[in-house]
Structures are given as structure tokens and as C-alpha cells.
Design goal:
With 168 residues, the chain is an alpha/beta fold. Helices cover 39% and strands 17% of the residues. The chain has a 5-stranded mixed sheet. α5 links the parallel β3 and β4. The N and C termini lie close together (10 Å).
């Protein structure tokens, strides 16, 4: 498997900076490297209080470690942020995640009333925002956040592809 140092370098040297590169997605990518280090699918997430730009919670996938199919990075940061804020609603918060959320995570974003969702790589196979179930477009969805995709997607895509290549 590619070393973590290489994965870290991939994150920090992902090519030219664009207007969409930002510190919160960089932090989410760092979390994704931590997941890869533990043998988890490299997905990281950061939840930020929008008005103050303060990071409330950061996490990476822990499905294998916790033996919990719901322990996706997004679910973990939403749970932690709700605990910290002592509220099930995160109306003034923004979520940064390195991979398009799956339908379960997209529904949690909706239930938590997250203000904005930023994601890096699209997930054509398991996504729930722009691919697959497209949770925010169904009638039963009570809240649709502002959605911004393809933010620092190259670094996330490279990391995910390398992770799965090394697994085969």
C-alpha cells in the first residue's frame, strides 16, 4: 500500500490551487488520510459554524474500527456537533466532506438542517446528492442545503483510487 507520507503529500501537492480550494476541505482531506492509515475508506469531514468560521467537529470514517455501518465521517461529525451544541439542528453550520455523501449521510444532513454542503469527489456508485438517490430532490426531503461539489476533487479522487488500487 502507498505510504501515508505519500498520501499526505498527495493532499498537500494536489496541483494548482483554484478559487475553490480552502482550509476546511484541506482539513477534511487530512482526516481522510487518517482513515486510510487505519485501513478505512479515506473519507474525512469537517463541520464548521458558518458565521464564525469555527471548526466544531472533524472526523474520518470509522466503520471497520467501530464495527458500525453508520460510522461514516459525515455521521460522526454531525453527532459530535449536535452533542457540542446540545441541539439536533445545525442550521448555521456548513459541512465539508471529501466524497459526495451517500443517501444515509445526505438524509442526516437534511435532518440536521445543515446550511451548506461542500464536497470534493463525486461518487457515481454510492452518492446521494448528485448521483444515485439524489436525496435532496425527493418530495420527502424536508430541508435542502446549498450544495457545492468538485472542491479540491482531484486530491480526494487520487487518494480514493490509490486506496482501492492497493486493496486489490
Amino acid at each position: 500500500m502507498q505510504s501515508l507520507l505519500d498520501l499526505s503529500l498527495m493532499v498537500s501537492q494536489s496541483g494548482q490551487m483554484s478559487l475553490f480550494d480552502n482550509k476546511h476541505m484541506s482539513r477534511a482531506l487530512e482526516e481522510a488520510v487518517k482513515a486510510a492509515n487505519r485501513g478505512e475508506v479515506p473519507v474525512g469531514a469537517v463541520l464548521v459554524h458558518g458565521p464564525t468560521d469555527e471548526v466544531i467537529a472533524a472526523a474520518s470514517n470509522r466503520v471497520l474500527e467501530l464495527k458500525d455501518p453508520t460510522a461514516h465521517a459525515e455521521m460522526l461529525v454531525i453527532r459530535e456537533a449536535c452533542r457540542i451544541k446540545n441541539n439536533e439542528r445545525l442550521i448555521d453550520c456548513d459541512l465539508y466532506v471529501t466524497l459526495e455523501p451517500c443517501p444515509m449521510c445526505a438524509q442526516a444532513v437534511s435532518f440536521a438542517r445543515i446550511r451548506r454542503l461542500y464536497f470534493a469527489a463525486s461518487d457515481e456508485k454510492g452518492g446521494g446528492v448528485e448521483n444515485g438517490a439524489i436525496v435532496f430532490n425527493v418530495k420527502s426531503c424536508h430541508h435542502k442545503p446549498e450544495v457545492y461539489g468538485d472542491i479540491m476533487a482531484e486530491a480526494s479522487t487520487k487518494m480514493l483510487k490509490q486506496f482501492f488500487k492497493d486493496r486489490r
